[in-house]
Design goal:
The protein has 507 residues and is α+β, with helices and mostly antiparallel strands. It contains twelve helices and eight strands. 59% of the residues lie in helices and 19% in strands. Strand 3 and strand 4 form a beta hairpin. The two termini are 55 Å apart.
Length: 507
């Protein structure tokens, strides 16, 4: 006895009733559903992609060190003693290269240092240091002046964050719509179950009244079989309605649960609403708002802008290449002096004093710009035919036309969807009014038939007919309300008012 009582109390605690409104269901689904987490990661991935696009304009620092020792045969005494020339080189270089985000300009700066030792007897500096610092700016004058693939990629990635945000919002609209559909299905299943219970109650009353009248000899035994059959059918319908209600609860729980062990699973969900709210009084209001704020249309607009950028890049590739380049170089040279004596009478072959020294002397010459070189060059590349660029440009223009047409088609589908959803709502309203009147009439006829039955002026066949009419009328009303609520949910999804209605923020 205690064990049975304990099990009963435990079952009551586990099957706790949880009342839930439509807004609560939507907000819990947005907060807990793993599908939202998965979709949000795609939206959040836009920022790393933007950072990757900015990487094209990051400076690149290059370091290089090289050692070289070479022995070569010398054909002249002026090259090397005993027919050989020995050289040892230590080279180091440091470079900085950067692409600028303006006008396609590229900047290169490099400094090269070499220490050279040689066996050549006629070298007046040995060993010596040679230092070169070079700055180069390349400016495109035609192709890649307005834009290039790197700047275009940066613009597209900057725009893609908003594009993915609108895509994420569209996914949320779809999820909210499915949550609403599950909620209204549970409402309809609950109403149908309650109606089935009421029909079963009427069948029980009819059976009890029949049994009493048969016992008193006022009705035949055959009438009792008919009442029991009606009772069995009502019980079966109630059991089926209960199973449908449990399935509807499980469907709604699948949206609310965050894990397979979420506390919502053992609860009994009880909807607190029976009528879906509408966001406007006319479809014209929703259409005007949706055409400017619907996330799908806004995403199409951003994709169209990105495609136009890609078309512009393809158009740039079809232009001739004309580049202007400016280079400024500074050199320094210093080393240990090697006296040459009077090898050639009348000529002083010794190194000049300003070149005698080590690496600091060469660096000072570079710093003071003692030995500058200025260079400007203009390079022109004129392809006689550029079918690759022409083909890509034609492809990008077709894609641009396609996206523009898709956006127009989406607008048409949006207007059509709003009109159709509103038409379903209006039709459902008429069905609700008709089913409500039919239910009232069926209930009145059943009550009248019950009074006649208790007074012995009717039979089980008529009573069963009235009970079936009442059950059909209740089911018609349940179906009409379900159609209305689902149409209202579709209207919110199509017009993109769901998130505002249920106070959902896209983050």
């Amino acid at each position: 006895m205690r064990l049975a009582l304990y099990l009963l109390l435990t079952n009551c605690l586990i099957q706790a009733e949880t009342k839930i409104s439509l807004r609560e269901a939507v907000q819990r689904a947005i907060a807990n559903n793993p599908e939202v987490v998965a979709e949000r990661t795609q939206f959040q991935a836009a920022q790393p992609a933007l950072n990757a696009a900015k990487g094209a304009f990051d400076p690149i620092l290059g370091l290089k060190g090289e050692w070289r020792q070479a022995t070569t045969p010398a054909t002249s005494i002026l090259q090397g003693v005993n027919g050989r020339l020995d050289e040892r080189n230590w080279n180091q270089s440091l470079g900085l290269r950067q692409r600028l985000p303006w006008l396609g300009i590229q900047f290169d700066s490099a400094i090269e240092n070499s220490r050279i030792a040689t066996s050549n007897p006629f070298t007046s500096l040995n060993p010596y240091y040679q230092l070169i610092q070079r700055n180069t700016i390349t400016i495109p004058l035609w192709r890649n002046l307005k834009t290039d693939e790197f700047r275009t990629e940066l613009k597209i990635r900057s725009r893609e964050r908003n594009t993915l945000r609108f895509d994420f919002e569209s996914r949320l609209l779809d999820l909210v719509n499915r949550v609403e559909a599950a909620y209204w299905s549970l409402v309809a299943a609950t109403e149908a179950f309650n109606a089935a219970q009421e029909v079963e109650r009427y069948a029980k009353e009819s059976l009890a009244s029949t049994e009493r009248q048969v016992k008193e000899g006022e009705m035949a035994q055959a009438d009792l079989a008919g009442a029991r059959g009606q009772m069995n059918r009502a019980a079966e319908n109630r059991a089926n309605a209960y199973g449908i209600k449990l399935e509807a609860q499980a469907q709604l729980k699948s949206f609310l649960a965050s894990t397979a062990s979420d506390p919502v699973w053992p609860d009994t969900l009880t909807p607190t609403e029976t009528k879906s709210p509408l966001a406007a009084n006319t479809p014209t209001e929703l259409t005007a708002q949706a055409l400017t704020k619907h996330p799908d249309l806004q995403a199409f607009s951003l994709r169209l802008e990105s495609q136009r950028d890609l078309t512009a890049v393809a158009a740039e590739a079809a232009k001739p290449q004309v580049d202007l380049q400016f280079t400024h170089s500074r050199q320094g040279l210093a080393g240990s002096s090697v006296p040459q004596g009077n090898l050639f009478p009348g000529f002083n072959l010794d190194a000049p004093p300003q070149l005698i020294g080590g690496f600091p002397r060469a660096g000072n010459q570079v710093w003071r710009n003692n030995y500058p070189t200025y260079q400007a060059s203009l390079s022109i590349e004129l392809p006689l035919r550029n079918r690759t660029a022409e083909g890509r440009l034609a492809q990008q223009r077709l894609l641009e036309t396609r996206i523009a047409a898709q956006r127009k088609q989406a607008e048409i589908q949006l207007v059509t969807g709003i009109e159709q959803a509103w038409a379903r709502i209006e039709a459902a309203r008429e069905r609700i009014a008709s089913a409500d009147a039919a239910l009232l009439s069926s209930d009145e006829r059943l009550q009248s038939e019950f009074r006649l039955f208790r007074e012995g002026q009717s039979n089980n066949l008529n009573l069963n007919t009235r009970q079936n009419e009442l059950a059909e009328s209740r089911q018609l009303l349940v179906n009409a309300w379900r159609t209305y609520n689902l149409a209202a949910a579709d209207l919110r999804r199509i017009s993109a008012t769901s998130l505002t209605t249920f106070e959902v923020t896209v983050e």
